[in-house]
Structure formats: structure tokens, C-alpha cells
Amino acid sequence: MTAPADLVVREMELADVAIRIDYFHDASDDHLHTLGVDRARIPSRADWHAFYQRDYARPVDERLAYSLVWLLADEVVGFSSVDQITFGVDAYMHLHILSPTRRRAGMGTEFVRRSTAIYFQTLELQRLFCQPNAFNVAPNRTLQRAGFRYVRTYEATPSPINFPQPVTQWVLERPA
Known about the structure:
With 176 residues, the protein is of the alpha+beta class.
């Protein structure tokens, strides 16, 4: 698929963090389960926003998370974030399309490609990992199409809001 000209990836600003917070808080239980997310582990909206206020006050090389917004025709359609960041070494990426009607439309691969370029440059990474739920087919296919290499499938808790689950670990090495 050729990427639409009006597809844009940009840094998520502090004013945008409600996109992420609302995505998880407003998601159905079925969708959270597909993501491997435990609703009971999701911080309150206020606590999560306070976390981002503290994190955005840090220099980029000291942040606990770094996020991007995905836009199509100036409409926010998704976001990506990284955590477990070791600046200059590696990080773990997450990717989400907001609306179920936008999922499986073929945009994810291009959004991921553009996001990885920003992560490699901004965080000076050597490698980027992603560990979607092993049974969530869409992100696993997207990562493969975006050039990630399969590493392994194993039991893990990918982030503090996840429950233990089988994940498929993918890696993308810094381009030469």
C-alpha cells in the first residue's frame, strides 16, 4: 500500500496525553483483553496525567516514556509510545489505532515505519523492541511488514498495565 500524503507522525505533546489516557479508560473490556491490559492496573486519569506532567518536565534523554501521535488528514487516528528506555541503547514500543473502524486498513505499517525513524533519531537507539500479545494478530503482522525481526514467543508482563500473557517479541535494529 502506498502511504497517503496526509499521513503524519509527530511527537505527542503534554496537551495530547489525554488521547492515550482516554483510549485505555474508554476501551471495552474485550478490547483491553485483546491488548493484554488489566483494567484494574490502569492508573486513574488524574494520576496518569500527573505522571506525564512529571515525565515531560524531564529532558528527553531522562524520560520514562516517549510518545508519538498518528494523524491522517489532520485527524488523530492513533499513537505509539516507548517505555523501558535505555537512552542510546534500546526501548520497548507500543502501537494503537484509536477507532475500530480504522484498524486493519493498512495504515499501521507506515505509521510504525515513520515512528521507528523518530524513535531511533530522538532517543539515539540501537534497537527497538515490541512485544504485542501473541494472540493479537494485527500488530504482529504490522511489525513483520514494517521490517521487525521475530525474536521469540514467551510469557511476560509487557508493562505495568498488562497482565501476564504470551507475547511475541520483535526487534528492529538501527538502520546503517
